[in-house]
Design goal:
8 strands, 8-stranded mixed beta sheet, single chain, alpha+beta, Muramoyl-pentapeptide Carboxypeptidase, domain 2
């Protein structure tokens, strides 16, 4: 889903830094300027968020980027968000479930509406509290794997 400029009304520039550790790819720069989402930047982000098993690329919901941006603003976080898992195909999701990895049957990762993310220099507990306070979707706390699951679905936590 790529909202038009009206959905980002009043926004000046939103900049984000992302890194996929499995591919060593990064994106650092604006994804929104003068209320308009930048298609070239969104294409790069879609590629960075791709399914690491199949290499399939899917559109990432800009609300997810806006959620990361809001978290960044609330914490004054300036490092790269480490994208552990972004988009994944239904086949990858089934494979993960088959191998005992916790993955919801109808995971929002399949829709490009979820990310598993790590933070450099920001305690996971603090990031979790802020994400919960934002009330913009689901927040999964995974301390053993040192990441948060964030999505733009219904507000809930686990």
């Amino acid at each position: 889903m790529r909202p038009d400029a009206a959905s980002a009304a009043g926004a000046a520039t939103r900049t984000i830094a992302l890194r996929a550790p499995w591919s060593e790819e990064t994106f650092v720069g604006p994804y929104l300027q003068q209320g308009c989402y930048l298609s070239t930047a969104l294409d790069e982000i879609d590629r960075l968020f791709r399914d690491r098993h199949s290499q399939a690329v899917h559109r990432i919901d800009v609300r997810l980027l806006d959620l990361l941006y809001a978290l960044q603003q609330r914490t004054d976080y300036r490092a790269c968000f480490e994208v552990v898992c972004g988009y994944r195909t239904a086949a990858t999701n089934r494979m993960l479930r088959k191998h005992g990895v916790y993955a919801a049957r109808d995971s929002l990762h399949i829709q490009g509406q979820a990310v598993d993310v790590r933070f450099d220099g920001l305690p996971l507990k603090e990031a979790r509290k802020i994400a919960l306070d934002l009330r913009r979707g689901g927040v999964g706390y995974c301390p053993r794997q040192n990441f948060l699951h964030l999505d733009v679905g219904p507000v809930r936590s686990w």
